[in-house]
Write a structure and sequence with these properties.
- By secondary structure, the chain is mainly α.
- It folds into two domains: 141 residues, PX Domain; 257 residues, Substrate Binding Domain Of Dnak, Chain:A, Domain 2, CATH 1.20.1270.60.
- 72% of the residues lie in helices and 8% in strands.
- The protein contains ten helices and three strands, in the order βββαααααααααα.
- A three-stranded antiparallel sheet has the order 1-2-3.
- Helix 9 crosses helix 10.
- The longest helix is centred in the last third of the chain and has 77 residues.
- It holds the Pfam family PX.
- InterPro entries: AH/BAR_dom_sf (IPR027267), PX_dom (IPR001683), PX_dom_sf (IPR036871).
- It comes from Chrysochromulina tobinii.
- This is Sorting nexin 7.
């Protein structure tokens, strides 16, 4: 059992660095952790590091997305800074959903980096982050020869997909486009509500001024200004709710899940290329060794022993050259074994991940849309209540 909540955001401003961190509370019976109940404070960059490590170490898994790094509602009135309370609330909800989905994933929950993220002290986590950054940089610095071989392999025609992967690839591309379009369209409706709240912020004071100039309607106009201000607050709460737990949050998260599914398919393509490259490199190294062996097979050994094997004569003819060729073959065999392992791992998990994607997506939308409908009904009821109260006031006016 691993239960995780993200609460209590704190804004830290000072000097050139400003950030918000969150309280991550953990309740668990997992023996990997020293305590059963504890908490740490983490900032967005820490979550970003964890997701990067999971993506790197589990290329066949659909890693849940993080909430957007930038404020997606900057165009909305009152949403100018990334330290805006509404934006922080949306980020908090998104970060908790990310951790809960990771904790519910059979493979991701076993990641040592997750334990580090949840348990390490701040300086220990920073040390781990620095170490992983160095490892990532080293992995990017391929030799010129390896880079050229990799480029040559990538220029070759890719092995055709089987029917299952081909169908999954088409689905992932289409689903991502559709859900992202739906997210943009719904965000436009949320923007309309935010714009209406902005208009009400001007309309309420206008009626307040009218109450001072029209004595006979002073009280009704005062009620009007008050109810319009209440409607403005209601609209702003609706906008916030949409981003935290409403349809906007649901669509944004599922667009991120679809993007992660596409990343898994890209990882599969990369693993296939790496496996093909490693196979060709091993074949090349093996032929180089065989050619050298054949060239030196008829040379008399320096030792008078007549029972020396071919390999022994090979090394005795030119020990340094033979040793280098043998080392290259062994390295190529090891690289092929690693590439084979990654390729097998991704192919083994991709079907399971796809099924899990469909299952969780169906659950998310079934639950999320019910919540959205109830939220809309409550929103409409609250609006009507304010208008009915105003109607009761104006019906009393002669």
């Amino acid at each position: 059992m691993l239960d995780i909540t993200v609460t209590d955001p704190e804004t830290h401003k000072g000097g050139t660095v400003s950030f918000v961190d969150f309280k991550v509370t953990i309740t668990t019976d997992d023996p990997r952790f020293q305590l059963r109940n504890f908490f740490v404070r983490r900032r967005y960059s820490d979550f970003k590091w964890l997701r990067g490590q999971l993506t790197l170490n589990f290329p066949g898994c659909i890693v849940p997305p993080l909430p957007p790094a930038d404020n997606p509602a900057k165009a909305l009135k009152g949403e100018i800074k990334s330290f805006a309370p509404d934006f922080i609330a949306r980020r908090q909800a998104g970060l908790e959903l990310f951790l809960r989905r990771v904790a519910a994933h059979q493979q991701l929950v076993a990641a040592p980096d997750l334990v580090t993220f949840l348990e390490a002290k701040v300086w220990e986590l920073q040390t781990a982050k620095n170490a992983s950054s160095s490892t990532l940089l080293d992995s990017m610095l391929d030799s010129t020869e390896a880079s050229l071989r990799k480029y040559a392999i990538m220029m070759q025609k890719k092995t055709p997909d089987d029917a299952e992967v081909e169908g999954l690839r088409a689905f992932a591309s289409e689903y991502y486009s559709v859900v992202e379009a739906a997210a943009r369209a719904h965000q436009a409706t949320v923007s309309t509500i935010a714009d209406a709240a902005g208009d009400l912020s001007n309309l309420g004071p206008a009626f307040d001024l009218l109450s001072q100039s029209e004595r006979e309607l002073s009280l009704p106009f005062t009620h009007m200004a008050r109810e319009l201000d209440a409607l403005r607050e209601l609209f702003l709460k609706q906008v916030q709710a949409e981003g935290v737990s409403g349809l906007s949050a649901l669509l944004t998260f599922n667009a991120g899940m679809a993007a992660s599914l596409k990343d898994v398919l890209k990882n599969r393509d990369h693993a296939q290329l790496e496996f093909s490259k490693s196979s060709q490199v091993l074949d090349l190294r093996t032929k180089e060794r065989q050619s050298w062996q054949m060239a030196n097979a008829d040379k008399p050994p320096p030792s008078p022993r007549a029972d020396q094997s071919l390999v022994a004569r090979m090394f005795s003819a030119d020990p340094l050259k033979g040793q280098k060729l043998q080392t290259k073959v062994m390295e190529a065999e090891r690289e092929l074994e690693e590439a084979q392992g990654i390729w097998d791992e991704i192919n083994k998990s991709i079907s399971v991940e796809a099924l899990s994607f469909h299952r969780t997506t169906n659950i998310d939308f079934a639950h999320g849309l019910r919540e959205h409908i109830n939220q809309q009904l409550a929103f409409e009821d609250a609006q009507q209540q304010h208008w009915r109260q105003l109607l009761a006031v104006f019906e009393k006016v002669p």
